[in-house]
Amino acid sequence: MKFTQTTQRLGLMAGVVVLALLPLPDFWITQLNYVALSSLVILGLVLLTGIAGLTSFGQAAFVGIGAYTSAYLTVNMGWSPWATVFAGLIITGISALLVGWITLRMSGHYLPLATIAWGLSLYYLMGNLEALGKYDGILGVPALQLGSVDVSQGRPFFVLAWGLVLLATFGLLNLLDSRTGRAIRALRTGSQMAEAMGVNTLRYRIGVFVLAALLASVSGWLFAHFQRTVNPSPFGLKMGIEYLFMAVLGGVGHVWGAVGGAFVTKVLEDQLQVWLPQLIGTSGSYETIVFGIVLVLVLKYMPDGLWSLVGKYLPQPQRVNDWANAAPLAERSKPAAGDTVLEVKAIRKQFGGLVAVNDISFSIKAGQIVGLIGPNGAGKSTTFNLITGVLGLTSGEVKFRGSVVSGRPSREIAERGMSRTFQHVKMIPEMTVLENVALGAQLRGHQGALSSMLRLDRTEEKSLMREAARQLERIGMGHMLHEQAGNLSMGPQRLLEIARALCSDPALLLLDEPAAGLRHKEKIALGAVLRQLRSEGVSILLVEHDMDLVMDVTDHIVVMEFGTKLMDGTPEEVQQSPKVRAAYLGTDH
User: What is the pTM of this model?
Assistant: First the structure.
């Protein structure tokens, strides 16, 4: 696959040069140059909005920073145009870091509103600064020169711009096919799960925001030397909305959709300006009305954009199982038999006047399976969330392997060796089973975004995939590695979550109703897996309503009722307790 993929990408790069040499009319070369400029911005939006789920109307402002930085430094300071691209990237990166640090803590409609405010602020700043020429802008921006060749116009610019578009596209595709990429793909629908797997979601959101801004900055640098002048008009809110329109039209969740959306929009925009006056008999900005109608139709009938129509006819690359000889991942030290792994001391959680968990205490020793049972609404899942850091304690203390972990974020607790599943399955439906499980090994890898984009992370990636495949084989799902996770029924989804949790090499595994949705044979297989894990020294806290499974695999049981601990003891003692039968198992008439 690697050779084939490399060959395809070299072929596309060569195709750009060949296309520039073909006798195409200069009009179409110019149109394609504008498509390339837009494509760079939309590639960032695809990553930011379509994949990470962060809506931004402020990308045009970052285009403006790149353009104005190059124009000012070349015209007023005498810098080489080739040096100004790096100055623009630095200024854009700092700006995006500050804006992202503030705005990405917001959620819902506050984030797009904040980016609108940012875009408007920068637009009016550009238009009112004397040093930037106010609304007249900066004129006489020098051309890009390679020796005596002007590469800021026509076919030379075509090769430069499209070469950068393809490099950015390949870099994003590499990024998404990596440890960092899996974390980014989890941001949109699985932030809570990602945090539990050790992903610092705020840091990743800021990183994606900065990367999208840097791509916009490169587009702005090219734009300044292509137009040979800059003014605030192309960097206002209108263009921010138009960039989002292009992304949605092409397919905001598809990297290649960025190019398709830019191409269709730019070509259609130009042609409509010719066709509509002929059709209507009068001139005006009627293309805006047409684009509005097109957007509504696309959202209604093709929510994944135009690329979803094209992509399904293209051959889909399949991951080759090339990890057989990969080095195994390092394993954490495990607690010795009999050591206390988890100690819960009088934990309490109040939501206003409601006491959801009321002074619960229990402990788990190494190699022990402890069941946490109780009727619906007893507070079991809330207790899980308190232990794993998803919720903060009102009072009490949680110790894991001798250290206090209460008050720490869930990703730090996961880093110490505690992993969990969820009452309602949390996974990324668009990812394969193998990729979902590999997300559990997030903390066992170290390669970052840059090494992923440059494909320098392949050795570590093979080890991560080897571990994910091993855990899937362990639970009997080795034949479903490349199945899309969204196609699984409930039973296999539950097993996938267990495999993902095991991929983190935990000392304590917390399973929240793992047998829900499983068939009888699957429950028997699950029981065998749990007993095997216990024999390997893994401690397990199990919340479950299937009493046959609980009584079969647990060493100790804690019974909850209305947020309080009703009793604890061995499975036999719990079965014989009149209080438990009355509260949970029912009573004899």
Answer: 0.90
